[in-house]
User: Fold Fructose-1,6-bisphosphatase, cytosolic from Medicago truncatula.
Amino acid sequence: HSADAHRTDLMTITRFVLNEQSKHPESRGDFTILLNNIVLGCKFVCSAVNKAGLAKLIGLAGETNVQGEEQKKLDVLSNEVFCKALISSGRTCILVSEEDDDAIFVEPKQRGKYCVVFDPLDGSSNIDCGVSIGTIFGIYMMKDNHEPVIEDALQPGKNMLAAGYCMYGSSCTFVITTGSGVNGFTLDPSLGEFILTHPDIKIPKKGKIYSVNEGNAKNWDGPTAAYVEKCKFPTDGSPAKSLRYIGSMVADVHRTLLYGGTFLYPADKKSPNGKLRVLYEVFPMSFLMEQAGGQAFTGKERALDLIPTKLHERSPIFLGSYDDIEEIKALYAAEA
Ligand code: AHM
Ligand code: MG
Assistant:
């Protein structure tokens, strides 16, 4: 009976968000329109990513188009699609993209109240070998009707209204939080719609996996090194953990959400702030983790408490299962 209900009573992402927002009727329409444009961008990127391998094989890449321009690289193309979709939604005022040095201020006649930070195609070095990649986004709201300023985009992560990612893998998966739990949707290509497939995702309280680029180990600080050592050689009788590292943040975080464990991109001697960007990588993933019952820590504080001072600022990040992040926090506290 219930399987049949699933087949005929389709919970699309739009329907789901409309239901969720029914508590805030004043913002309901605007947020739904904004989200629809983000979803449209993700569908476009999904289709482009799926064709990328083929385009290469049949020689489309690098070919010139009618205007005599070289074919755009996928990350550049994805960025343009997202920027245009977001601006034309009429609901945004500031856009911060990993692809652009400066923020985009939307002109007054198309301006709305949302500020969107995003990485249109994260992990793009993985495209050519067919490994999963993704889009990451976070949404803030302007507090009042002032002229938008850069500070509106430099709010701490805890002020985000919504955040999520879309993973372009063996299937296309869209995961979102609007501050009341985490839900996952899978693209049904025949319908062109994202259907709820992972309701109310909760990360296991403790995990059996750790995920980190161990090639940086010689430059790690003490607590990071001690944590990874503990994963491999536990002294409390627990079994050693498995290592999984894809090198594509969306895919590594997605696995961590579903299976539990930790994902770390710590500081090291060569990169004292780690690698990942605060606004559109660290914050959205930290918001999702907390909403799924996990934690996100920078080595100093709760990740969502960070107040960014620059658009492309970086921060070390440790996120994952609640108990596992407690262990990492204890190691950093012991050192301080
Ligand atoms: P990018 O924005 O240049 O694609 O880099 C971000 C990616 C993340 O997806 C991933 O977590 C990380 O870089 C992997 O870095 P490394 O190759 O240093 O392990
Ligand atoms: Mg990136």
